[in-house]
Design brief:
By secondary structure, the protein is mostly helical. It is built from nine helices and four strands, in the order αββββαααααααα. The N terminus is likely disordered.
Length: 183
Amino acid sequence: MKPTFKLNMKQKLAALAVLLLTSVPTQAADNNAVTEPFKMAVIIDEAYGRAVVSGKYEEAINKLTTVKRRARESFSDHVNLCVAYTKSSEIEKARIVCDAAVAHVRKQEADVSRIKDHRSLEVLAYRANLSAALSNRGVLLAATGETALAREDFVAAMSFGTRYSRIAAANLDRLEELSAQKA
């Protein structure tokens, strides 16, 4: 029996754009090399992602939380709210929606695990979405000083081998640099 797991085309080909969490690169302590800031993923074609990318965080938050016709349980809503709340320093709200983004994808795990072709669009989308959600949550955790938990999320995001895993790897490198500077 074929699994009933289905994704719409936007989910299959989720166009995640990279958004810089910090606006200015910093100097590494040991060699004065410029290091990369943390990065978060935003779904630009859905859930007011373009507003988030352009820095209109409050506008995106207001539209995503007040429009009654929107399905507020969508993955793109959670991802984009996670970034908007994080950038707006609304940490508790960011934590809730970042966790919800991860949970939303993990609900699909049983369906995805039944798909034999590990290169199918559904499996690839699942891996990419979970990698992006974990990396975003890792950035939030890093920003709140929860280094060990951030590291766990970055490592888990990297394990999926997606292009978003590279973002997680860069975020983990940045976290390690910051930890070494504090030591």
